[in-house]
Design goal:
The complex is a heterodimer of chains A (134) and B (187). With 134 residues, chain A is mainly α. Chain A has six helices and no strands. Chain A has two domains: 45 residues, no CATH class; 62 residues, no CATH class. The chains are: A mainly alpha (134), B mainly alpha (187).
Chain lengths: 134, 187
């Protein structure tokens, strides 16, 4: 031990003796700790597993609801779905009002059969349009 | 005179199995040292040291702080006390990294019997004042080694730092403290 260390040790021993002479008694600390720990026991701390358990339960409930909704869709949903399907099919069924004119024009432009007259096409009524004389 | 330290080998080896009575016995045995350490951590502020020590004992006895056998009971208890003082300081919004907020003179004057300043009292006051000029880490390491007769390894364990770092703080702090004390003595 060097001189510095010896001197410091001596000084610290003096300080420690002074501190110990003026230290508050242990019994006071112990009694307060006893009464405080009793009060703590009256309201026990919440167990650590409570929060994870609640989260897991919430996740399980959400998963259950999701699975149920996937397995059996409600009647309203089915009806709505079929309605939407019908209305979307209308798009494909729709024809232009002037489609008949195109058909008639195509027939007119067709090469007439040898045994037919060129005027025969003119005599074919256009679907959806009133024929002359109706 | 300081009480002789009970060697760590004479302690119960496994405090995990300690019941409340045994814990109280250990706390009582280490009370004087714990008080000195609490005072040092609190910058010699008696009121703060008392509050922190009370809270530390409550933590230990209520089981909020549990001893694992990674270190000695004393090192563990000192770590609890140190952290509790830091919590109390933060709560009181008095904590700063350099520790300059700790009013050493006020704390020394508040000690019972401080009005009668003996030669020994003056020497203690000079030591406390010289310690205040050190960094927190240096002060803590020197206090643990010289006041509590801990090894540098034990001091490192209390402070949660590496042994190399503790050794560096010890060497620098020792030189700085010796210089400060010599300066005061010359005056």
């Amino acid at each position: 031990m060097s001189d510095i260390e010896f001197e410091l040790k001596k000084r610290f021993i003096e300080l420690r003796a002074d501190d110990e002479a003026n230290a508050p008694p242990f019994e006071g600390f112990r009694d307060r700790a006893r009464s405080d720990s009793r009060q703590t026991r009256i309201t026990p701390p919440r167990p650590r597993w409570i929060v994870p358990a609640l989260l897991a339960a919430t996740a399980a409930v959400l998963a259950g609801v999701w699975v149920t909704s996937r397995a059996a869709p409600p009647r309203d949903a089915v009806r709505l779905k079929s309605l939407m399907l019908d209305s979307s099919m209308q798009v494909f069924r729709w024809t232009m009002p002037t489609d008949g004119l195109l058909t008639s024009a195509r027939r007119t432009l067709q090469t007439p059969a040898l045994s037919a007259s060129v005027l025969d096409a003119a005599a074919v009524p256009i679907p959806g349009t009133p024929f002359k004389g109706d | 005179m300081a009480q002789p330290l009970i060697p760590e080998t004479q302690r119960p080896s496994d405090a995990l199995t300690m019941d409340r009575t045994e814990l109280e016995g250990e706390l009582k045995r280490l009370h004087a040292e714990s008080w000195g350490w609490a005072l040092a951590c609190a910058g010699r502020d008696r009121a703060l040291a008392e509050d922190a020590l009370q809270t530390s004992y409550l933590k230990v006895l209520s089981g909020r702080a549990r001893f694992g056998d990674r270190s000695s009971f004393k090192s563990w208890l000192f770590g609890v006390i140190r952290l509790t003082v830091m919590e109390e300081l933060r709560r009181a919004n008095r904590w700063r990294a350099d520790g300059s907020e700790l009013e050493i003179s006020r704390a020394v004057d508040s000690a019972p019997g401080a009005d009668v300043m003996t030669e020994e009292g003056e020497r203690n006051a000079a030591l406390v004042a010289a310690m205040a000029s050190l960094s927190n880490r240096q002060r803590e390491v020197l206090h643990l080694v010289f006041y509590h007769a801990m090894t540098i390894e034990e001091a490192a364990s209390v402070l949660g730092i590496s042994v190399g770092s503790a050794r560096t703080h010890y060497d620098r702090g020792k030189k700085a403290l010796a210089g400060q004390i010599n300066e005061v003595d010359v005056r």
